[in-house]
């Protein structure tokens, strides 16, 4: 099984400022994630939604649905739109790009994204 | 307003034609030359009288009302009949004493029903069939008859077997009465069909439980022991609870006669081909107008007259054309297709008739052609009118093929390409093939778009098949694809999954779709798998297909919490059960509310609380209510014979049995049911997808009702069933729906979209016309045998339970974004700020 780390907006944005890099926090075992289903994690006061797509890749985006304000994106249906991996908000069904956090139904809206990695079978999320 | 010098247009009558006149004048008069005052005798604004009978099937008066936008230049006075026209002073006076001056007066008073002068016609229980008020009165009388405490069938006599009489008979049958139709002519619908077509029509409607007596008249009506008795010219006496006169119409020309306007020999205000009467300031349109001495009782010629007068009032030169006076008709009468067009009775000199009559298959077709057999003049179709839409526009044109082959089974299929551009596709709104093709060329790529820009298909709808053919001919494909991942419709996907035995989404999408699915196709496939007996909805890969409600077996609310609904079959619950629900709600701090489906909803549960809540409920004997699923919700009931003085059957017992039989059954949309113990209908069963109303002899089954965005009343599918028969028909109905409906298509829309509608549905699931009933019943038996409570399935399985956590790294930590305030003594979500980011885009 290949495990890749999803490229994220956070990483790209942080590169020019030469910040010390993300602080990695272990969340759960990788195999705790069902294929094409999400879970939520609480990191301090930040809620992160983690998804494992069918090819084994893990993505992390903010858990709060900007349209309803409810912390529910981890409970959406994972799929793709024209090949772009997405999760659909379970409240009003807008699709979010799992890689960029961009809302595909409203270009003015996006959710944060976070880097993820697997170390010793543990899933870790990078916080700024 | 006074600064502009308006001319005054007074319209007498606010029926379909009067309404069309007003709309057309306002559309074409942006300067506001005319100020319009409409005086309507009925207390309601114009409504779709052509669809009058749908009123008894539950279509509301509001839905039938014709659309109109408020307009400062249009004043509408309803319930105020005009009593006098003073042509010298150019004034009209109304019953309420209004006086209105006019520069132009349009009479659109329509018709009055003709009631033959027989003794007893004024007795209570005798009605005419013309207005919504008439139908209200008939419905009330039928209800009274249905609930009267006496044995025997409730019956009705319909005087007149024309189009209206058969409509009335069908409506009376829908109201539960057994109608008998009495027609003085030797056949039904004598205006539209010929002898051969009439014979078949009679046989087919008699199969629909309609008694028909032709060639006799009603000679008198008398009251006997609280009922009516109609005596016929052959001496036979018919008992009836209701008598409806539908023996034709007469122009409502009293006002015009009193004003001294010339009228036709058979009534109607005489008008010229501009629709102007002998008075240059007075016009007449619709059924009251006698154009060259002849009146027209159909809406299409009336609309054409309205258009001509509107044009003339605004300085135009339009005249009535013979095409606009087309009396062609197509309708479905009691499940029988009937069409009549052009010179249907072959009155043209030398006309030849070509007939194909197949009494075994139940179809009759006749074409009337010119003496040289080159030109189509008209025709009659009974039993199968599918060719009407292509044949009618060919009237007057050279025949594209041998006339026998054009109507013979398996003969030549006339394509839309055979029609000339000038052929009128929509006769109601006078839209030609050329106009439709222009609209398609300009980007109208589906039927609704064509309707919007040409008006074709917006009245009777009989031309919609030709519109589809023209779209197909223009290369516009009508997609039924579920979503971007599947080109199939839901029904096709069901067939694929059922037929191939594939039981995972991955395999379905790999073999029959593209990509990885989405929030449209995944739940649709999950629902199909569940309907095919796929085990627990969280087993294996299925868990990832479910939307959040089915994933947590609860209903997501706006603040990320869920609501919990235990099943309360039939709405029957013990005091102990109520106490358990109360204690659970109290102990978990949940808001409680009684639902419309006779159960109790507990709101505000967090994901991690759901297993503990359900442990308590399951231990007390409750099980999932499937309020979260596209599945059976509830079977609502009244108390029936158990308690009620009027109950005719045990409605609670049946409701409980049905709810337990169909619990957990997943479908393309949620569905609901109700059982009423008598015709008083306290369970509101006719607002349900399948509703049952007790009769003296058993149960009446209604299908296709719903509340919600577009409320619909269920229509009668079958009558007086015993309980076993009833369950069998419902089994078939539900399984047929599950197999063939589109995603999120409710039963009402499913039946409406079905070719042949309710009659086709009845043929399939009552008469087994497709031979699939045994298969449908077996599928339902499999569901019933395989049912298991989903919540117990979760509580018994640690792997499934593990998913009910708030955070994967802090399983019991409550979501910090969830907060409540107290309102009327209960916890509710904090009131929400308006959403700044706007509404979601609408996707299919």
UniProtKB/TrEMBL annotation, chain A:
Record region (Disordered): 1-21
Keyword Hydrolase: no
Any Pfam family matching the protein: Rieske_2
Keyword tags: 2Fe-2S, Iron, Iron-sulfur, Metal-binding, Nitrate assimilation, Oxidoreductase
Domain Rieske: 25-125
Family annotation (CDD domains): Rieske_NirD
PROSITE patterns assigned to the protein according to its UniProt record, in alphabetical order: NIRD (PS51300), RIESKE (PS51296)
Keyword field contains NAD: no
PANTHER family (alphabetical): NITRITE REDUCTASE (NADH) SMALL SUBUNIT, PTHR40562
Protein name as catalogued: Nitrite reductase small subunit NirD
Organism: Pseudonocardia xinjiangensis
UniProtKB/TrEMBL annotation, chain B:
Required cofactor names: siroheme; [2Fe-2S] cluster; FAD; [4Fe-4S] cluster
SUPFAM superfamilies: FAD/NAD(P)-binding domain, Nitrite and sulphite reductase 4Fe-4S domain-like, Nitrite/Sulfite reductase N-terminal domain-like
Domain BFD-like [2Fe-2S]-binding, first and last residues per copy: 425-472
Swiss-Prot/TrEMBL keywords: 2Fe-2S, 4Fe-4S, FAD, Flavoprotein, Heme, Iron, Iron-sulfur, Metal-binding, Nitrate assimilation, Oxidoreductase, Thioether bond
Domain Nitrite/Sulfite reductase ferredoxin-like: 557-618
Nitrite/sulphite reductase 4Fe-4S domain span: 629-765
Residue ranges of domain NADH-rubredoxin oxidoreductase C-terminal in the record: 328-394
EC code(s) of this entry: 1.8.7.1
CDD domains: NirB_Fer2_BFD-like_1 (cd19943), NirB_Fer2_BFD-like_2 (cd19944)
Protein's job: Catalyzes the reduction of sulfite to sulfide, a step in the biosynthesis of sulfur-containing amino acids and cofactors.
Annotated NCBIfam families: nitri_red_nirB, PRK14989.1
Protein name (record): assimilatory sulfite reductase (ferredoxin)
Organism: Pseudonocardia xinjiangensis
